[in-house]
Structure formats: C-alpha cells, structure tokens
Amino acid sequence: MAQAKSQFGYRRHPDQDRSGQSPAEHAVVVVGAGPVGLSLAIDLAQRGQRVVLLDDADRIGEGSRAICFSKRSLEYWDRLGVGDRMVDKGVVWSVGRIFHGESQLYQFNLLPENGHKRPAFINLQQYYAEAYLVDRIDDLPEIDLRWRNKVTALEQRNGSVALTIETPEGAYRVLAQYVVACDGARSSLRQMVGAEFAGQVFEDQFLIADVKMTAEFPTERWFWFDPPFHAGRSALLHRQPDDVWRIDLQLNRYADPVVEKKPENVRPRIARMLGHDKFAFEWISLYKFQCRRMDRFIHGRVVFAGDSAHQVSPFGARGANSGLEDAENLSWKLDRVLRGRSPASLLESYHLERSMAADENIRESTRSTDFMAPNSHQEARLRKAVLSLAKETEFGKRMVNGGRLSVPCSYDSPLSSLDADTWHGGPSPGCSMLDAPVTTPAGEQIYLTDAFRKGGTDFTLLSFSNGAAIDAPDGVKGIRIGGKGGFADPSGLVAKRYGAEPGAAYLLRPDGYVAARFRHPARAAIAAALVRAEGLY
Amino acid sequence: MPLSTSSNFARPDDAFRAIVEAHRGLTEEQSADFDSALVLILANHIGDIDVLREAIGLAKRRMIDGQQQQQQQQ
Questions:
Q1: How far apart are the C-alpha atoms of A30 and A122, rounded to whole Å?
Q2: Residue A537 · residue A413 · CB < 8 Å
Q3: Are strands A445-447 and A437-439 parallel, antiparallel or unpaired?
Q4: Are residues A384 and A339 in the same domain?
Q5: Can you give the residue ranges of every domain in chain B?
Q6: pLDDT in tens, A248-265
Q7: Chain A, window 248-287: residues with a beta carbon less than 8 angstroms from a chain B beta carbon
Q8: What are the pLDDT digits (tens) for A37-78?
Q9: Last residue of a domain, one of A364, A383, A410
Q10: pTM score of the predicted model
C-alpha cells in the first residue's frame, strides 16, 4: 500500500514561548496544508504577505486522492511557480471515451484546439502535487509552515481571531487578522464557527482502487456504463504517473464497506476488469458521496476555502480544482484588504463568486451521480432510453452523463462591469481569460497566460493596438497586442479568441478573470471599471 | 415561443392512433420504456428548454387536478 511520500518534522516556534496574555499577532493564518492551503499560502506570499500555515499532521496525506488537475489549475500553478513540475510529472490527457456494455458510445476531446500552453487535464497523484507545493514553500521565507499544529479553539474578537493551537509540546495561542480554513471536508474550524454543512448524501458506494501495473491502455479517461466485467454498474479508468491506474467501481448501497475494502475482495473485481491479476494495490478506498456546501463561506474573520466550504462527488474533477479556484479568487482580495487598498467588503465578493461556483459544481456533479446511480425505476428507465438512443443519435450521446469535467465558472459578479458595446465572441465580464500564443517584443514565443504572469498577476489591461496609445489607470499593468513594442499575435488567435478588433481592450483582474471590456476604451470608463473591480463601488 | 396548445395536427386522430398502436402488444414495462425514449426524442426535437418546462408543467398540472378530483369524489 502507498507510503507517505514525505515526512516533516515538528519544530518549536518562538510564538509558543509567549505568554497567553500577549500572543503573537499575524496577518493571515491558513489552516490546512493540502493543495488549497498550500497554494493559497504561496499566492499570498508572492503578493508580499507573511503567512502562517498550520497543519495537524506531520506528513503529506496518504493515497492518490484527487488526481485530475484542470487546465485552469495548471495555469494557476504556473503563476505559483510549480506548473512545469506538475505537468512534467503528470500524465497529460484530453480525450475521454464512454462505453456501454461492450461497445463504445462516443468519445470527446476536452481541448480540441491548439494554441494553449496547458492541456485540458493532467493526472497526478495528490501527494506529488502537495510535495511540489511544499518544495516551493521552501523558497518563500514569507511562509511559516508549522506541522503538528492543530487548531483546537477559535475566538472571534473585534478586529482579530484568537486561535488556540495544540502541539506535541503543549498548546499556545496566536492572533490573526484573518484565518483561512482549508482544513478539508471534515473541517474542525467549520464546527468551531458553528456553521452547518447541509446537502445531499448519495447512498450508492464507490470503490476506488489505485493499482500499479504495466498496461497498454491509452492515456484517456474511460468510463463504462454496465460493463461486462461489472454488470449493471459503472466503472472509470484513469492513468496516473508511475504506472499507477485509478479504477473506480460503483457498488450498491448495501455493500459492507469493511468487507468490500479488503484487498482479497477487491482483487477479483479488478482482475475481471483487466483480464489478469498482474497488479499491485497502491491504495484502496470506499466512498459514499455527498454534495453540500456552507451557507456562507465567510464567518466574521474566518474564511472557508476548498472542501471545508463545499463538497462534491468526484465525477467531473470538481473538488480539488474548485478549491484551487477558491484560493486564486481569495488571495488577491485578501492581499488588497490587508494592505488597506480595498475595503473589507471586497471579501464578500469571494463568498458571492465562489458560492455561485460551488452551486454550479454541486449541480453538475449531482446530475452526473444521479445519472450513474438512478434513484427510481423511472429514472433508471430514462437512463436506459438515453443510453440506447446514444447508439444512433447525436442528441442521445450528449445526454449521456458520465461526468461533466471541471471548467472555470463564469461569475455574475458585482465586480464586473456589464458590456456597454456589442461583442461577437470573446470572454464576457465575469469569465476567465483565454490562453493563446503570443510573441514577445524580443521575439520569444510564449503564451498570453505567461505574459499575464510575467506582468505581475495584478490588474492588467489587455489591449489590441490600433496605433493610438490607451492610458491605463495608475497601478494597472499592460499587455499590448500589436504595434511597436507590443506582443505579436502571429496565429491571430488572441484577436480571434477575444473577439477583438484593433483598439479594443480587456481589463483583467489579478485572478485572470475579465472585469470589463471595451471596444473603444475611454480612460474614464476603464477607471470606473477598475474602481468597481477593486470593491470600491 | 410559448408552448402551443392549439391543435397542430390536420388529423389529430391519426397522431393519437399512431401512439396507441405503438404501444399495442407491449407489456407495461415495455410501454414505459417506449414512452421514455419517445419523450426524450420529442423533447430534443422541440429543443427549447422553456417550452419543455411549460409542457412538463401542463402535464403535472393534469395529474394534480386529477388527484384533487379523485379526493373530492371520495
């Protein structure tokens, strides 16, 4: 079985020597060093914030757990300086196939076009992702990562949060202006603030086995309804690095988890699927899924991100990826609030935008799970009809729901300025920026996401040159496409994907979302959009 | 376009008859399977989620009205 890949030592911190009456004061304490907490800490540190990152364990979690990381997550990790490592180690894929019984119903390509720096998805064991993020933290003295530090009490005060932290050498206290709870689905901080975590529990159980073997399956996502090796239920196969394969088998709701998890009982199931038993188990887990979210992601000065705030079924890769989107959405806002550059109310937009995304993710993953595990005879009958129609009709294929994979949510947000012009194509305000190849003034071929990152991941005016200079408001970075000294768009894909004619401009937020766009930008309109996006509306 | 509830077939009896005949000789279970497929095919042909929702609403309303009538008779 899988071993913990990295072990980290507990180290005493001077904060622990302070008296309970004068605890150390910190700007931000992030609780939970999983993918979300680690990424958020790095992002905040890169923005110049000092971060205390607490984790109750002393090692990276066991088991592959989240394995599918989306294009959006990779673009975020590029900004955090770990994208290359993730992609180099990860298994790149964009094609999925859906089978019914013995035969293929259809296949899909999640990124059928060229001209993107990052693929639709990589598969990578969560322990690798976490290890690379921890390595990155070693380069960032702003982050104080404390292992075996478990928050046991939380008290909201006027202007700060007091945390009591248990360590192997006893408890100590710290004060924080803001606490971000990235402590997972069973979040103890969520209980400490007394928040409910209500939603839907799915009774069907799913067996997840990661097996090590050499196999000739292509690097694709394969999903079966009613396969010959697992009659009447669904199955999923994913490739991971190191010759590890993720196999996900639907079990019935009455299966005994203790019995089903035993390797000697899992082995024949997997052998039936593979047609041989030349494999070794890396990890076995049995799941019952829940789709639920907190009513509010912000409680006083405690902000919830990732699984602590929302939980989805895994079909669609919407768990870790949405948590990473939480982190990228929160970090720039928290940074601005801590610097006094935006009012604390800017954080409310984090709750609005990300709870909207959570609703979308829950809706999508609930639909997938319901399709896989129908709740009634009639639901099963409708599914049967869809699967049979899919054999000969396009509409049937598109109704088959074997998981709708994570794409960035579009926000209906108070930070967005509505289009004043008529646009044909391009990301509208509240949508994520799109990638495309560009050539730097020095002749280097990079991508728009690179240019955004190198520009400093701040408010950025992406403008399409028509010869006249556009005045960007103070403090706004610029990426100019075309014109002397600008980026070239040799493939024309930037202009095409942004539906932009010369003279147009997009105002991008620090998380790469479109705040506003203008076909004929005027300085005053850009400034007004900026004020709105900074939360000064 | 709202759901059309005016009579659209030149010969409505032919349409009703075609559906009835499709069910002839089927078991209850087969009939239900058939109806499910037919509903999905027609829904896709309509291709308008608002019209579909209106149609669902109309069908549901008939059921509720029917239940209420039954209760009143009892």
A1: 27
A2: no
A3: antiparallel
A4: no
A5: 12-73
A6: 999 988 999 999 999 999
A7: none
A8: 999 999 999 999 999 999 999 988 777 889 999 999 999 999
A9: A364
A10: 0.94
